Fold these 3 entries.
Entry 1:
Amino acid sequence: MQTQIGAYPVELIEFNPQGERLIVLLHGFGASTFSWRTVTDELSELGHVIAYDRPGFGKTPVVTRTKAEDPYSLAGQVELLKAIIEDKANGRSVVVVGHSAGALVATEFALRFPEMLSCLVLESPAVWRTPPVPAWLGRALRTNKFENRAQRLLEGFSKAGMKILRDSFYDPAKLTQDVIDGYTEPMQNSDWKLSLWRFMTASQSNEVRKNLWRIEMPVLVITGDHDKIVKVENTFKVAERLLCHSIYLVPNTGHLAHEEDPKDFLRVVSRFIKKNS
């Protein structure tokens, strides 16, 4: 369902709007709300669940960006999350669950607006990785000259994206054709390369690593014990800098632990949410 949030149309799904708490799910790079299909029903037993396609991904359409306001940037993604919570929380406690690059957005949000959250869940947080596009290069690539070539410059992304998806699963048998189709469906949109280009060239500038110790709310850090995309050692680097954290490794899973073993993921996450919100 496409919903207008502030100035931007966003593809958004929600469950149990009358739930006692608000739970917002943020997907990772190259994903969409499809990634959360394995856990939304069970999480909705705990509260009002919202998942949305972050700008640059899924079915959220291409939106205008300017030098002053860029919804594809980390700052813009944080502002969008803030607008959604302001619109949907209605005085309830709020939990944000961020996966991979979505966890970076969630952590930056927690640093900027701690009063808006009860607790935080970070799954395979892509916090310790260097942004794929350096800031100086991103500024150059945001010009119309390069943006007009996005279709050609991203010609090989489908192949690279499939490799990332394969590497995200520890058990290859769980990467079925239905899963592949769900991840690649947004590529049927003629604007998907332009949307992705705008995300990849947007500023992701932040000082999250330096400021993790400032987060005082309860944080659950969770990851697959065979994660190849965000190395487990880097997830531990994030966790050990948080003042009030617990950590859990989902056995025999990779980067998408919530998809490979949703039962174990939900067991740990549900207990954490009930205790801290």
Entry 2:
Amino acid sequence: MPGTVRRLDPSRPVSNGICSFWNGLDDALMAEQIQHGFGSGDLQNADFSGASDLLWERYTEAFANGLDVVGYNYLEGKYEQEHRLFPERVILGSENFPKEVGLHWPMIEKTPWIIGDFTWTAWDYIGEAGIGKATFYAPGDPDIGNPWATPSPFPWRTANDADIDVTGVLRPQGVYRRIVWGSLETGLFSYDPAVTGKVETLSKWGFPGVWAHWNWAGREERPVNVAVFSAAEEVELLLNGVSQGRLKAGEAPVQGMPLTFLFPTVYRPGTLEAVSYTCGREVSRAMLQTTGRPAALRLTAETDALRADGASLCYVHAELVDGDGHVVPDADVALEARVTGAAELLGFGSGNPVTAENYSKGRFTSYLGRALAVLRAGCEAGEAKLTVSAEGLGQVELTVPVAEAKVERS
């Protein structure tokens, strides 16, 4: 197989993501796997790093040796052993769990024979619905610790396990990954006060169920947990200017994750701030502010113009903002979009992972105060006008020029 790939494209190294053994093995190998304590064989992407035998190595060596870079799926625990066995092997983390990057990245950075790490996954997708959701149980519930006890029934749609949602908005785990990779920023997030006192259970692909806002109307004075992501030595939490305490690195992590701090406080509308300190000096800070109610719609295009080639796309973010221009993160408002002129509305929707709405109908409910419209140019130059409306907020328009497409001449 690697030889075939090299014949098709000799310009770059060949790799492959190799996971642990799972269903699909022949009878003899399945029996050997069970004999070594690997369950029934239905163990897709399981981590057998604790196994003392070399079953996995024996059966993958011939295939792996034909690769330029050997991709390991969810097998970080084998890296050191593999280097001892195959010192010339170049290893890549080809698929790994999102919340574990803080545990493994320090080793990856200092180890030259491990060249990097891919998470599952960067961009959210339709399918494997709810594989990354956070579930909260009352203390004593027998399902605590079982991430599959609560199914993800319709209308669950997306996996919800990504750094970026389907509309291109960075999610909390994307902020965490940047900090693990060296960013000095402070990430500030809150849990819903409604889950305080419950036990959070995550799948291997899950991430703590935190939110980048401080809008919890109706839950005033209720206890709430606040999560801070920071690479600093110490973090202080301030609520409306009053200190809620300081925590040192590792003192109270979120779900055992490095570079995280968990603060208990109460929900009071206003301003929540987290300040990161190293060597007694402020490194960075972050703020969440309770917003007003939606007062207007705001449209922002990612590109200034389209080309009249029948394929050029323009992504336009629709935001519900309060009177001060802040996005209202708890605004779930029915929106309608339409396009006239030299383009068509290719899609319109939000990043909501749990919805039965149709991306092609031009009607969608905002999620966390946002939605996204995708415009596709036609084959004639002119102007395209996007109009987005919401009941009680009127409508807003944005015009995108569609320039004549240049003809490539050979």
Entry 3:
Amino acid sequence: MPPLDAVLGAWSMNWPALVILIAAVALYSKGLIAAKRRDIRWPLWNSFAFFALGLGSFAALSFGFPGTYSHDLRWAFTLKVTSYLFVVRCWLAWASR
């Protein structure tokens, strides 16, 4: 296991993940604006869960330690893929309830 400062300090740019992240922010924001125009109240907690928890965990996995070392460490790759499949999806689904 690497030291904590290596885990917290690891960062790399993942351009496809950045495009997905920007598209998700733009589409969700567009939906929030459309809901506001139709006088539909969308709970603040759902927006927080989508942006901070869902997209935040996606960004941490894509740009942080798992994204940086997933090509070199099998366990980092496994952590990244399983977290994409289970953790990020759960947060995003929780935000849309």
